Amino acid sequence: KLLKRLVRPVHEVKADYLHDAMVGAGTKDRWLMDVFTQSSNGEISAIRAYYNKAHNEDLEHRVKSETSGNFRKILLELLKARRDETGYVDEASADRDAVTIYKAG
After folding, report:
1. What CA–CA distances, in Å, run from 91 to 86, 87, 88, 96?
2. Segments in the chain below pLDDT 50
3. Residue 71: enclosing H or E segment and its boundaries?
4. What's the chain's Rg over C-alpha atoms?
5. How crowded is the C-beta side of 56, counted as CA atoms within 13 Å?
6. Of all residues in the chain, what percent carry a pLDDT higher than 90?
């Protein structure tokens, strides 16, 4: 199985990994987070297209049905593949956000 994965495109392997994470009883949240946070916008778009075709279901719908709360919101936002990939960090904005989050508890 490992050798088969090594010769397949990465987006296909990741899509199947997501499918495996959501099959059967219980969802492997860590697997979902790993794939979505470690994939570029382009990869996420390719993953989504392949998943929908290969597994005959909509990835967004499946994520919605398998997750809940803030975790679901994060995953669905990542699934949009609109993350800023420029590497630019607005330090002042980051500081304000950190203070806001800290004060919120």
Report:
1. 14, 12, 9, 9
2. none
3. helix 69-79
4. 16
5. 0
6. 83
